[in-house]
Design goal:
Layout (H helix, E strand, L loop, with lengths): L1 H19 L3 H5 L10 H14 L4 E8 L5 E7 L2 H5 L1 H10 L13 E6 L7 H15 L9 E5 L4 H14 L39 H13 L3 E8 L5 E2 L4 E4 L5 H21 L10 E2 L7 H5 L3 E8 L7 E3 L5 E3 H21 L1 H17 L3 E5 L2 H13 L5 E2 L4 E6 L4 E6 L5 E4 L5 H8 L18 H4 L3 E5 L23 E4 L4 H12 L5 E3 L3 E3 L2 E3 L4 E4 L8 H11 L5 E3 L15 E3 L5 E5 L5 H15 L4 E4 L13 E4 L10 H12 L3 E5 L38 H5 L7 E7 L12 E6 L5 E2 L5 E6 L12 H7 L2 E9 L2 E6 L13 H9 L10
Parallel strand pairs: 3-4, 3-5, 5-9, 7-8, 25-26, 25-27, 27-28, 28-34
Antiparallel strand pairs: 1-2, 2-4, 6-9, 10-11, 12-16, 12-17, 13-16, 14-15, 18-22, 18-23, 19-22, 19-24, 20-21, 29-30, 29-32, 31-33, 32-33, 33-34
Length: about 850
């Protein structure tokens, strides 16, 4: 009786605390939705609540952004559940097979807000959702654990909020022509490096994603919701999603989306709010905040509220209705609470189906055996580690099975350290989705790319087999370099981005490096084109050997000492074929007209991968800047029709002629295509019209969108022919699997070098490409170099840095920087 009395007092005390916590408006000092709240104030509110109700709210910092802002999640439940939180987590993870099953399970609902920084209403809604759970929905918390990430992208959010607060009118203007509705480049959508974090869940190139995956994979929730905003005329979108659904999505995952959607609809109907479902947002591409959780067993959903960076505190849409921040955050609050409600009321079925998902995953038995460069194998292992996907090295010398590229059985010779990834594990469904050669499409109208096979992305050969694979007993360890005697030089391989990072570090430390344009045989050592040669003759330094060893060991590069500059085959060290790599002094174009995403990929590549210095030149002042301080200009993908006039193009031509190098990516090729003084030409198919009216003109209105996909490529993989005797393709075999993102095509270069190109009748190896586009790609340029005076333009029609996940493309960019026509020697 005494224990019961104490329990009643405890529950009553916590209920009173719940009733007395500050509302967001009370804490912030303004009505929620009347201002945008800076990130640190949002976190302050969550801290206030967790300190007031420590028995019901656990706030945990799980990481930091590039700009140093903290990343937090709040875990909310009843005091009893919070007291047993680790037991609940372990019991839940037991149903995935990742941990031993240790007890009863609870529904786990994860709500993620503000992955796009300028879709800012959702973070405001996270505060109200927290408050209402603890004051109005406490009965639900007895039977559910709710995890709230109030802001996935604090850097982007504060970029938007700070700009808006500086720019807005008082009172705000709902007229969309007012400056407060016109975000400047690059906008608040992306993170610090201008990456779209909603497309980074699988690739985990950004530190926000890497940190989030650690805690997400600690919990593996039953439901995950990603809160977004869309254009101002589209009222509200919630699940069920649109086709295509990936074929691995279960019937239950489809069904429960509809159950949840109907519950949302009930509340929206009661309030007279408009909404739509089953349109636009499909469940195919695996790196979204709805698909990644879905492929990890959850019910993953995107909720889209009208608004985004255009809306501000209030804006008039095309129907003359004023859309306010207060409206937007309220709608997100309602769908968030409705989601938790459905988890509680459908718990037994949801828990059962979740467990079944992982049981069926483990029952699959397909092995992907991967062979290739050790650096690329290690890069793939690093990616798999981030998702806690299991793999093993194999001791087999060869393996027979199905080759998905050849579409036939074949035998693959293996090296020590080659990798086996099996679907026979808890995350086997995700393994299949990431490694499958061709994703099944029930509908070609998709929201994103349709191909992402990891063997192509990492440049690895693959065999699939259901046979068991003998694991390796151990893994080879890097042996540190020790140079005991002084030799004329040293050699290092050139096959991966890791080698490029090593080279960049040597250059920064003023160690001079050469590379060979032709194969060399020297004292029984075979060195391919592109091999780095660090020669004593170039480095008059007594401690040169020690410095080289230290840098090589830091990067875990094996360096081969060479006892003589005389080669038994190929060029000697003094040959003009052994070319000095001159330190690149690099500028990258940024600002209006450039794609912020493409610029961000380049920026991230230099700062976070190569660790090599650059200068960024904004289009606001680029025309007035002298390029004499640089020998390389990188122009990202962009839309430059209104910027590069004849005078600006002539400026580029003068820079190139004097020995400069321009690297143009995707849309930047149109700066030069069909322009006087440049060889590059658009590749145009012949479309003959027999009359004023063609069959295409007679397509009914409601079929036009579907018919248009015949002219599109929605992210597909093509096998390129490579001239790997050209420095742009050093380190590659004679072919390369390229991710093509659009239908732009260019003629082969007659006087320049067509280094990577498509031949007759190209076909998509993976992903969707329309028939009309395929015809136009025949015999078209993908990678090339055009010489102008003493310099060059390097054309990269396919973006080798796209989302930083096509690992095998990154060496092309390094080749363009360091090896292709790199001008005269200049100190950094």
């Amino acid at each position: 009786m005494k224990k019961l009395f104490s329990l009643v007092i405890f529950i009553t005390f916590n209920f009173c605390l719940g009733q007395n916590i500050s509302s967001p408006s009370e804490f912030l000092g303004y009505e929620l939705g009347s201002e945008f709240t800076r990130h640190h104030r949002v976190i302050d509110y969550f801290k206030e609540i967790s300190e007031t109700l420590p028995g019901q709210v656990v706030l945990k910092q799980y990481g930091s952004t590039y700009e140093g802002r903290p990343l937090y999640v709040a875990t909310i439940s009843s005091s009893k559940n919070i007291g047993n939180l680790e037991q609940i987590r372990r019991a839940h993870m037991g149903n995935t097979g990742i941990m031993e099953n240790t007890g009863n399970d609870f529904p786990i609902v994860w709500l993620s807000y503000n992955v796009h920084g300028n879709e800012a209403s959702s973070t405001e809604a996270s505060m109200l959702t927290l408050y209402k759970l603890l004051t109005e929905k406490t009965d639900w918390l007895e039977n559910v654990v709710v995890i709230i990430d109030p802001c996935i992208n604090p850097d982007g959010r504060d970029r938007y909020v700070n700009w808006y607060n500086q720019t807005r009118n008082h009172p705000y203007s709902a007229n969309r022509n007012s400056s407060e509705h016109r975000e400047p480049w690059p906008g608040g959508r992306p993170n610090h490096y201008l990456f779209d974090l909603n497309r980074d869940w699988v690739w985990a190139s950004q530190i926000e994603t890497q940190a989030r995956l650690k805690i997400y994979n600690d919990w593996m929730p039953h439901i995950h919701v990603d809160f977004h905003e869309q254009y101002i005329n589209d009222p509200y979108y919630f699940a069920p999603a649109a086709e295509p659904f990936h074929e691995n999505i279960t019937d239950w995952q489809r069904e429960f989306q509809t159950i949840i959607g109907k519950n949302h609809a009930k509340y929206f109907d009661q309030n007279g709010w408009l909404y739509f479902t089953r349109e636009r947002f499909d469940l195919l591409y695996p790196s979204y905040g709805d698909t990644y959780p879905t492929f990890m067993g959850a019910i993953g959903m995107t909720y889209e509220q009208a608004g985004h960076g255009l809306a501000g505190l209030g804006i008039n849409n095309d129907e003359g209705i004023e859309l306010t921040l207060k409206d937007r955050l309220l709608h997100h609050t309602v769908t968030g609470l409705s989601t938790v409600e459905m988890a509680v009321s459908n718990a037994p079925k949801m828990l059962s189906e979740f467990k079944q998902f992982f049981n069926e995953s483990v029952n699959n038995n397909l092995n992907y055996v991967l062979h290739g460069d050790s650096d690329k194998i290690n890069s793939l292992k690093s990616l798999l580690d981030k998702h806690r996907i299991k793999y093993q090295a194999t001791s087999a010398s060869k393996i027979s099975g199905y080759n998905p590229r050849l579409k036939q059985n074949a035998t693959l010779q293996l090296n020590e350290g080659d990798l086996v990834v099996s679907t026979n594990q808890s995350k086997g469904n995700m393994v299949k989705i990431l490694f499958e050669n061709q994703t099944k499409l029930v509908d070609s109208l998709t929201y994103d790319i349709t191909a992402w096979p990891l063997p192509y992305a990492y440049g690895l050969d693959v065999i699939t087999t259901t046979k068991s694979i003998t694991p390796s007993n151990g893994t080879s360890q890097f042996q540190a370099n020790k140079f005991e005697s002084k030799v004329p030089g040293y050699a290092a391989k050139w096959t991966s981005i890791a080698d490029a990072k090593f080279l960049a570090d040597l250059i920064k430390n003023k160690i001079r490096v050469r590379f060979t344009n032709n194969p060399i045989e020297n004292n029984s050592n075979q060195f391919d084109r592109g091999t780095l040669l660090i020669l004593r003759a170039d480095n008059n330094n007594e401690i040169f050997d020690n410095e080289l060893a230290e840098i090589a060991n830091k990067h875990q590069r094996n360096i081969v000492p060479i006892n003589s500059g005389f080669s038994s085959k190929g060029p000697d060290f003094g040959s003009s074929d052994i070319q000095l790599i001159n330190p690149p002094k690099i500028a990258v174009l940024s600002g209006q007209y450039t794609s912020s995403l493409s610029f961000g990929e380049i920026w991230h590549y230099f700062e976070q991968q190569l660790n090599y210095p650059i200068a960024t030149l904004n289009t606001d002042y680029f025309k007035q800047v002298s390029l004499d301080d640089f020998n390389i200009l990188v122009i990202p993908n962009g839309y430059y029709g209104g910027y590069f006039d004849d005078a600006t193009r002539e400026k580029l031509k003068s820079f190139i002629s004097k020995g400069g190098k321009v690297i143009a990516i995707e849309g930047a090729l149109n700066i030069f295509a069909d322009k006087e003084g440049f060889e590059l030409k658009q590749h145009k198919s012949e479309n003959k019209r027999d009359s004023l009216t063609t069959a295409k003109d007679l397509i009914p209105y409601n079929q036009r969108e579907r018919e248009s996909i015949k002219d599109l490529i929605t992210g597909a993989v093509f096998n390129l022919n490579l001239d790997n005797t050209h420095p742009l393709a050093f380190g590659y075999p004679k072919n390369y699997y390229s991710l093509k993102l659009g239908n732009e095509a260019y003629n082969l270069l007659e006087k320049g070098y067509s280094v990577g190109y498509l031949g007759d009748n190209p076909v998509s190896i993976s992903g969707f490409a329309g028939n009309n586009t395929l015809k136009n790609l025949s015999n078209s340029l993908v990678f090339g170099e055009e010489s102008i005076g003493n310099g060059s333009v390097i054309y990269l029609a396919d973006n080798v840095l796209f989302r930083s996940f096509w690992e095998n493309g990154k060496l092309f960019f390094a080749n363009a920087l360091f090896l292709v026509n790199n001008g005269s020697y200049q100190e950094l």
